[in-house]
Specification:
The complex is a heterotrimer of chains A (288), B (418) and C (280). Chain A has helices at 7-33, 50-57, 59-91, 97-105, 112-122, 129-136, 151-176, 180-188, 193-204, 206-221, 225-231, 242-251, 256-281, 284-287, and strands spanning 2-3, 36-38, 44-46. With 288 residues, chain A is mainly α. Chain C starts with 7 loop residues before the first helix and ends with a helix. Strand 1 of chain A pairs parallel with strand 1 (105-106) of chain C. Chain A: InterPro entries: MetI-like, MetI-like_sf, UgpAE/MalFG_permease. Chain A: The chain crosses the membrane at residues 69-91, 103-123, 164-188, 209-230, 260-280.
């Protein structure tokens, strides 16, 4: 291990200063704010754990927590798997592969909010081309985000449409970082395609995959704009994730304390899950 | 005669005051004013006219509608001198006022209030004080596609408010105009917002909020409300004369414009919105009502308010006062055609702009049937839950259970205002 | 290159799969692009009329784009480009330095500091926007480029990305250079960075897109029309009373095309030779 007393801090200083001022301090204020209540006229007072007790008694909160966990249980593995599959497909040289790669990453230049507006129109039951297409190929029109049963899956679809190409890039960068000599050695040892993938590629892709999984988890727990724009948490509460509850508490109910309490709970949940993901993704040597 | 004198006096006072402010503003104060994201050419001329007259600049920040509300929350909750003035959505007046985000305007506008149509002042008023001055108002009318009526051999609805259609009649006409095989629908409301739909239960005879303006249980889920909203749901789910999932004005407009919707209940802004459909020939009729009840129409629009913490109090007041003048309101009507809130504009333009039957209907509704949304400090909460409930009802959720849940949620959030 | 991927049927399968996936991704965008060159009154086609006319305009028009060019969209593009490129310029260096420190050095409080880096992207932005706004105002930065750029330079996710990739470069590399007397900064700039082109390219893209897509913060911190950014200009077409679909589609389409240019520029870095040549 390399160690040096001051050098690491010189390297860290600019980034940490930025994070400390523009992220960590506001986060600290926000977490502290979860212990406070703001009166209608704006007076701040300390209320201890009152906001959290309120949430504990609120069935909407628990329902929303379940929805959030279910959403993430599905979307994170799906996005990682799709992104990995895409990365493998466009990794090796192929005439025209740059063209496919470009097509696959186009959605990342659409902001999340606009992608929601776009899909709201694209999937619209009366004017959207998607339902026309589905009827034309014989599947029949679907209600998508307007139905209690399909809304959450529609949101997962939209997020994956936007995210898969983006996350693919990180895995692609990972694949390119694996020295070709490693493969050559494995081939000489007589490993077939699957064995090379399983015993060479996968272990060496651990770090990029951990990055994608952790970053994606944080982003998807904070997934919000499409809920707000397309479903307002509905139909009948089926897409009411915690972020939406936090948003409503702050911007509609003027209850900042409760909103920050929900955000703090979210922070806690994401932290726990990310720690689990780190453990899951680390290599056998690191685990020892 | 009396009005003439009062206006003269008001005009004189305004001129004097503006003159003095004009000098004070020579150091070029700039007012920060979060504004709607209307096209630049509908916003800038108003600000330019004010600057020309007083030397005070107004930096109108044109924000998309959802961001306007979000940004206002962030700025106002920071409780500092920003913004100086801001656009207030009529029914949110009480919410801002109850939280100390609006200056009382009564004293400042004391001599001017009679120049406004009374129904337009209601929404800017909370606790019997005027907090936000109406820049205009709105109403809802029935637009119909003349060609589709002719094809079906139906007589066109009358534009005379005295011969207003009932909803029962509207339903049977809509049935005759619905052709599922070519996805043609009979009728739709332009969206599912309470602004749009509360007129249904109100016409049915429902009280939509308790007399204390804070109670939802028994009102939002009262029998009359449930019956009226069941009727609304049947329009979409049983009779299938109305398209499901029409939550967005922009989309419903397109359906009407492309001839796939025979009737649409919508605001006067559609007059501009429909212009782009070249082949569209439409007529207008008053908002229908239930035979058993009374005619009720939605109303309310944008107001202007002053942040009580502004560092430019005199300039902010001058701006609001200027906006209340005939000239400013006339210019504003030129820019965006909301039904005016000043009587004078109605009178002056009676023979030019307002010859269309549309404006006769609008004027009639504003004077007789316009019913403002509940003046509750919890309107944001009320509207949010009710809108979600109305959307769920539109797409087929159980009406009573949905309204029960909405009432329970609203009451829970209203507690803080008690 | 090795064999099984070059066999004809495998090749066909790859092209087939790629084509299907690309179709799914591109279908909504093609519709969007074609709708943006339609006359305003026929942007939408009823579901029952699905066919070629759902996509092919009856009359081709650039009216929507012409309107955009005469409005504030060009200014918004200029602002967003400036803000995004400046953020990339500073952000890549600042975050790479931090990522390098986490990957290579051992120091007191390393785990705690890294935890803080991770935590920095776990809080909803809506929860920190109020304190951040108050802070920016206290700095006197409201309505300025600083407000849009400075808070976005240090980015926990980008630091994390660099850490992951720097950590996969074998340590002997650095040790060897140290023995030769190289300074740590030299090692960072001359050994670690050149070995990490795909990562640098990706992180630059990340920072660029974060700014290109940003919406809520610009609205709050710099809503003066002189600082309009792309996403705000797009959203102005969505209006409660009346939407300008043509304007929305055209501006979204331009935002996608312009936002993809950085990817096209960096695509050349997605090749293996750069790094495999280095590590032996």
């Amino acid at each position: 291990m390399i160690s040096s007393r001051w050098t690491p801090f010189l390297f860290l200083a600019p980034a940490l200063a930025g994070l400390l001022i523009f992220r960590l301090t506001p986060i600290l204020v926000a977490v502290g704010g979860s212990l406070s209540g703001v009166s209608l006229m704006g007076e701040l007072r300390y209320v201890g754990l009152e906001n959290f007790e309120y949430l504990a008694d609120d069935p909407e909160f628990w329902e929303s927590l379940r929805t959030t966990l279910y959403f993430n249980l599905l979307i994170n593995p799906i996005q990682l798997a799709v992104a990995f599959a895409l990365a493998l497909l466009v990794f090796r040289p192929l005439p025209g592969v740059w063209f496919y790669r470009t097509l696959l990453v186009l959605p990342m230049a659409v902001s999340t909010g606009i992608s929601a507006v776009l899909f709201g129109l694209f999937l619209d039951g009366n004017l959207g081309p998607m339902n026309g297409f589905l009827e034309w190929i014989g599947i029949g029109a679907q209600p998508f985000h307007r139905s209690h049963d399909q809304a959450l899956y529609t949101l997962i679809g939209i997020a994956t449409w936007k995210g898969a190409g983006y996350w693919m890039l990180f895995l692609l960068a990972g694949l390119y970082s694996i020295p070709s000599t490693v493969y050559e050695a494995a081939t000489i040892d007589g490993a077939n395609g699957w064995q090379r993938f399983r015993y060479v590629t996968l272990p060496l892709m651990r770090k990029p995959m951990a990055f994608v999984l952790v970053a994606d988890t944080a982003i998807n727990f904070l997934f919000f704009a499409p809920v707000y724009i397309l479903t307002s948490g509905g139909p009948s509460g089926s897409t009411s994730v915690l972020m939406f509850q936090a948003y409503r508490a702050a911007f509609t109910f003027s209850d900042i304390g409760r909103s920050l309490a929900i955000s703090t709970v979210l922070l806690g949940i994401i932290a726990i899950i990310v720690v689990l993901e780190f453990r899951f993704m680390r290599s056998p040597e690191e685990a020892k | 005669m009396q009005i003439g004198r009062r206006q003269f006096m008001a005009g004189l006072a305004t001129t004097t005051l503006l003159g003095s402010i004009g000098r004070a503003g020579a150091q070029s104060t700039t007012l920060s004013a979060p504004w709607m994201g209307w096209p630049e050419e509908q916003v800038a001329p108003l600000m330019a006219a004010f600057e020309k007259e007083t030397g005070i600049k107004v930096a109108a920040e044109r924000l998309p509608i959802a961001e306007l509300f979000k940004t206002l929350e962030v700025r106002l909750q920071a409780r500092n001198e920003i913004p100086d003035v801001y656009l207030v959505d009529g029914p949110l007046t009480a919410s801002y006022a109850a939280r100390g985000h609006l200056l009382v305007l009564d004293e400042m506008l004391a001599d001017d209030l009679e120049r406004f149509l009374p129904s337009t002042l209601v929404q800017g008023t909370y606790d019997e004080k005027l907090y936000a001055m109406p820049l205009g108002t709105s109403t809802q009318i029935l637009f119909y596609n003349k060609k589709l009526f002719a094809e079906a051999g139906l007589p066109e609805p009358s534009a005379d408010p005295a011969k207003r259609m009932t909803w029962e009649e509207a339903l049977s006409i809509a049935q005759a105009l619905t052709k599922p095989e070519i996805s043609q629908f009979g009728i739709a409301f332009e969206n599912c917002n309470p602004y749009q739909l509360l007129a249904l239960p109100q016409s049915w005879g429902a009280e939509v909020i308790g007399p204390d303006q804070l109670t939802a249980a028994g009102y939002v889920n009262g029998d009359a409300m449930v019956d009226a909203m069941t009727w609304y749901q049947e329009l979409h789910q049983t009779h299938k004369v109305a398209p499901v999932g029409t939550f967005q004005t922009g989309v419903t407009q397109e359906m009407f414009g492309s001839g796939k919707l025979a009737m649409i209940v919508g605001g006067t802004w559609n007059l501009v919105g429909f212009e782009k459909f070249e082949g569209l020939d439409f007529g207008v009729a008053p908002h229908p009502y239930f035979a058993k009840g009374t005619p009720v129409t939605p109303t309310g629009s944008w107001h202007i308010g002053i942040n009580p913490r502004t560092a430019h109090m005199e300039e902010a007041k001058a701006f609001v006062r200027w906006l209340s003048t005939r000239d400013a309101m006339d210019l504003w009507f030129e820019l965006r055609q909301y039904p005016p809130s000043l009587r004078q504009i109605w009178e002056e333009r009676a023979s030019t702009n307002f010859i269309d039957p549309v404006w006769e209907i609008v004027q009639h509704e504003l004077e007789h049937t316009a019913t403002p949304r509940p003046a509750t400090p919890g309107y944001r909460e009320y509207e949010d839950f009710l809108k979600t409930a109305m959307q769920d009802i539109n797409t087929g959720a159980d009406v009573r259970a949905t309204l029960d849940r909405a009432a329970q949620n609203i009451d829970r959030e209203m507690r803080k205002y008690r | 290159m090795d064999n099984p991927f070059q066999k004809p049927h495998v090749l066909m399968l790859r092209y087939g799969l790629l084509s299907i996936l690309a179709f799914i991704v591109v279908f909504p965008l093609v519709w969007l692009a074609l709708a943006s060159v339609r006359p305003q009154n026929e942007i939408f086609q009823p579901v029952s009329d699905f066919g070629w006319n759902t996509f092919i305009p009856s009359r081709f028009t650039l009216d929507n784009y012409r309107t955009l060019l005469n409005g504030d969209f060009p200014l918004a593009v200029k602002n967003s480009t400036f803000v995004a490129l400046t953020t990339v310029l500073f952000g890549v260096v600042v975050n790479a330095l931090a990522g390098f420190a986490f990957a290579v050095f051992d120091f007191r409080g390393k785990n705690l500091l890294f935890l803080l880096v991770i935590v920095s992207f776990m809080m909803p932005f809506e929860a920190i926007v109020l304190p951040l706004y108050v802070m920016i105002r206290a700095f006197g930065w409201a309505n300025s480029y600083q407000a849009l750029i400075v808070p976005e330079i240090a980015n926990g996710m980008v630091i994390f990305l660099f850490r992951q990739f720097f950590a996969s470069i074998p340590r002997d590399f650095y040790e060897a250079a140290r023995v030769d007397g190289a300074s740590w900064f030299y090692i960072f700039a001359r050994i670690a960075m050149p070995l990490s082109w795909p990562t640098i390219a990706t992180s630059g893209l990340m920072l660029f897109l974060a700014q290109w897509d940003s919406f809520f913060w610009p609205v709050v911190a710099a809503s003066d029309s002189a600082y309009a950014v792309v996403q705000v200009a797009i959203a102005r077409n969505i209006n409660f009373e009346q939407n300008d679909w043509g304007g929305l589609f055209a501006s979204t389409n331009l935002a996608i095309l312009l936002g993809t240019i950085p990817f096209l520029l960096i695509q050349r870095f997605y090749v293996r030779t750069l790094i495999s040549g280095g590590i032996k």
